[in-house]
Write a structure and sequence with these properties.
about 300 residues, alpha+beta, Herpes Virus-1, Apoptosis, Tumor Necrosis Factor Receptor Associated Protein 2, Chain A, 2 domains, five-stranded mixed beta sheet, five-stranded antiparallel beta sheet, 9 helices, 15 strands, about 25% helix, about 30% strand
């Protein structure tokens, strides 16, 4: 029964992006989850947990222009049809393995021995450290921090969600709402106590996610101040990381520049899913700083 796996059990629509699951593992679409407090199948609570495996399966099906019924039939027929197996090897590898992974994940999450926990997160906006259920974070941001909330678009679920802001050389924070999660862009500017007119700029991307999930997301930052460009790319930080932990470990963009707080600071970059996370460990001491000859050299990748 493909409907049971690939369609929302509440509205019966085929799953797209943003698939959530109750703490027992039953999937539901985002629109229905926002209207429910309890899972209609087992009465378990919704804690804001995303079903990334099923989201990846739905993306691959859409990319291959393949319906769930065709994918399941292909996996079954491949065992006995040699010609079909040769022609459809790539699809079988991609779809079959992920279907098995989803089934295994579902069995594990429904096991009575699986630990249950509340998916809490922290709002990282300026002057706000409110702790809340993950599924309530987006509404909190829109209600309480709307001027600094940006919804980023992308060409597809796995592409880069780009941003660009022209700011002053002061502390700034933005909430970035993407197809694959909520992230905070944090820019900190501090004045030197020794050299007048010398500013230190630090910046990073922090996700509304756990330390385990953080490696699933990748970010790139460019900051331009007074003909100086600084670049840094890294996996995102998790929601419980503190400013002191990040800056003391040099796990962020960091550079100094001669400027005043009324000068312009431009920040641009992107957030994306980290499909090569095995090759992208946490970076350190990796900010690249260069001088620009002209303001026209300011650009966003």
């Amino acid at each position: 029964d493909t409907d049971g796996m690939f369609c929302c059990p509440v509205c019966y629509e085929k799953f797209a992006s943003h698939i959530f699951q109750c703490k027992s593992g039953h999937a539901v679409c985002r629109e229905c989850m926002m209207k429910l407090n309890r899972c209609p199948q087992c009465a378990a609570a919704y804690l804001g947990t995303r079903n990334y495996v099923l989201e990846e399966i739905m993306f691959e099906l859409d990319r291959l222009n393949c319906s769930p019924e065709q994918a399941v039939k292909a996996v079954k027929d491949a065992a006995t049809t040699a010609d079909f197996c040769r022609n459809m090897t790539n699809m079988i590898d991609q779809i079959g393995q992920q279907i098995e992974a989803q089934a295994s994940s579902s069995r594990t999450s429904q096991s009575p021995t699986s630990p249950s926990h509340v998916e809490n997160t922290v709002c990282r906006m300026q002057y706000c450290r409110q702790t809340m259920n993950l599924k309530d974070l987006e509404r909190h941001l829109i209600d309480k921090h709307h001027p600094n909330v940006r919804r980023l678009s992308a060409t597809n679920y796995l592409s880069k969600s780009k941003f660009s802001f022209d700011l002053l050389c002061t502390n700034n924070r933005f909430a970035l709402l993407t197809e694959f999660g909520i992230f905070f862009l944090i820019v900190r500017v501090t004045s030197s106590q020794i050299i007048q007119g010398r500013l230190t700029v630090t910046a990073w991307i922090q996700g509304a996610c756990t330390s385990v999930e953080a490696s699933l997301f990748y970010s790139l930052l460019h900051i331009y101040v007074k003909h100086t460009k600084a670049t840094y790319h890294d996996i995102v930080h998790h929601s419980r990381s503190t400013v002191a932990q990040i800056e003391d470990a040099d796990q962020c963009l960091m550079f100094s520049v001669n400027a005043e707080d009324y000068d312009t600071l431009k920040v641009s970059g992107y957030v994306c899913l980290n499909r090569c996370k095995e090759d992208r460990p946490r970076r350190s001491l990796a900010t690249v700083v260069e001088r620009l000859r002209d303001y026209d050299d300011y650009s966003s990748d």
